[in-house]
Structures are given as C-alpha cells and as structure tokens.
Amino acid sequence: MLTFPNAKINIGLRIVEKRSDGYHNLESLFYPVRGLRDCLEIGSAHELQFINTGLHIDAPAEKNLCVTAWKLLHEQYGIAPVRIHLHKIIPFGAGLGGGSADAAFVLTALNEYFDLQLSVETVEVLALQLGSDCPFFVRNRPQFVQGRGEIFTPATIDLSGYYIVLVNPGIHVSTAQAYAGVKPLKRAKTLFEEFDPNPQHWRGVVENDFEPSVCTQFPAIAELKTAMYAAGALYAAMSGSGSTVYGIFEEKPQVQFKNIIWEGGL
C-alpha cells in the first residue's frame, strides 16, 4: 500500500493559555499543502520493519511516530507486523507537521490494510495519542483548531487560486525554545470568530504568536518574511513554531528565493 502524507501550514497561531497538564491551548487555522509530500509504503512482513530513505531522521526507529502508530493499533487491535518504508521529503522540525502527517497516515493506511473498519472519529482519537497535530491529518482538510489541537471546526476557505512559496532557512527552532518566549493571551474573540477568508486582509491582522520571540532570536526569519512581502506576497508568515516561512501570492513571483522547499498552486 502506497500513500503520500502531505504538509500543512498554520494561518495564524494564537497561544491562548497554559493548561494544568503542561500543554497549551491554542487557536489556529490548519491548511493542507498537498503538493509537498512524503512517500509512505506499507507491506507485509514477518516482523516489524521501519526503513527511512530521503531526509535522514536522526532518531532511533523505535521512537519514530510511524512505529508508535503501528504499536498503538497492534496493542489495541492485534494487527500483524508490517514493513513501513518512509521516504522523507518534508523537513522535520520546520512547522509543517510532517511527522504528525506520517503518523496519521500510518493509522489511516493500517485501518484500511487490515480492514479494521474504524470510524474517522475513532482514528482521530487514536491520532491524538500520538501528537497534538496528528488528528488534523485524518480528515486532511482546512480546519480551525482549538484546545491542544484536537478540537476542530471546518473552515470554509479555499486558496486553490493562489500560489504559495515555502522557504526553510535551515534554522532549527525547538518547540520548547519557541514556547519559552511566548506569553499566553486570551483575546475577546477567537480566531474563528474574527477570521476573514480573503488573504488580502490578513497582513498585520492574522498573526503567529511565536514570531516576535523567534524572529528576535533568528533575524534571518524576519528578513525572509520581509523579502516575501517585497516580492509581492499578499500574506507571509512563519508556520507553526518555525522555521519555515511561507508567502501567498496571486501568481508566481518573479523573485527566486533561496532554500525553497516547495512552490506551486494551493
């Protein structure tokens, strides 16, 4: 079985409050970027195998979320061993949800492969055990996200007529590092209540709460965002906790950015 886990971007990201369990409640709009994808193959095996090609994942196989996803279904539903081959293209630690997508796609693929007939809602509950962003990739469509990433509201937004450029400056921003510079703030209205679906109205209004502190530590990220606007972007932002910056354009920009990881129509 062959499947292609895709990336996502955050359109706005608010850190609302710190929870008693150590997580943070947030508000964001997750939008899938289907053109930037990993390649995931699942096949039969006598014992569990995990193979990584493409970008090298610097972690033991047993700690990879794809393996953890298989273990979760093995423990709860007794599924047999499989061979998981992940060809990694989406940069990890880049704010694009690549690892979360891989894990969620493994759950969805194994559900089909073993004919478990689990509902979408059940797969989402399982995915949340793997990571806060994982449930989004089960339905894999634009969603307003609240809570720690498990509360969804469908978003009626369509960016299919726009052009996106994703640039990764090669800076690693750890999640802990990003959160350390953020002071949670609960607004009078949620992002969902205030959101305007027209990207021409987002600049200076739809913000990522991680940006001020991360850009202070890594000026190259702020410079990249400025360059996107100079090239005619309707909107530019850092995705997630970074360090990928994306720009949304009406058409392909004339400027050729360095370190592009993907560009094309949304």
Q: How are the secondary structure elements laid out?
A:
Blueprint: E1 2-3, E2 6-18, E3 24-37, E4 39-44, E5 49-54, H1 65-77, E6 82-88, H2 98-113, H3 120-128, H4 136-139, E7 143-146, E8 151-154, E9 163-167, H5 175-180, H6 191-194, H7 211-217, H8 219-230, E10 235-238, E11 245-249, E12 260-265
Parallel strand pairs: 5-6
Antiparallel strand pairs: 1-4, 2-3, 3-7, 4-6, 7-8, 9-11, 9-12, 10-11
Helix pairs in contact: 1-2, 2-3, 7-8
Characterize this entry briefly.
The protein has 266 residues and is an alpha+beta fold.
Structure description:
With 266 residues, the chain is an alpha+beta fold. The protein has two domains: 2-154, Ribosomal Protein S5, domain 2, CATH 3.30.230.10; 163-265, Alpha-Beta Plaits (2-Layer Sandwich), CATH 3.30.70. The chain is 27% helix and 29% strand. The protein is built from eight helices and twelve strands. It has a four-stranded mixed sheet with strand order 1-4-6-5, covered by helices on one side. It starts with a strand and ends with a strand. The model has no long low-confidence stretch (mean pLDDT 94).
Q: Report the helical percentage.
A: 25-40%
Are there runs of 5+ residues with pLDDT below 50, and where? Answer: none
Class by SSE composition? alpha+beta
Mean pLDDT: 94
Strand order of the largest sheet: 1-4-6-5
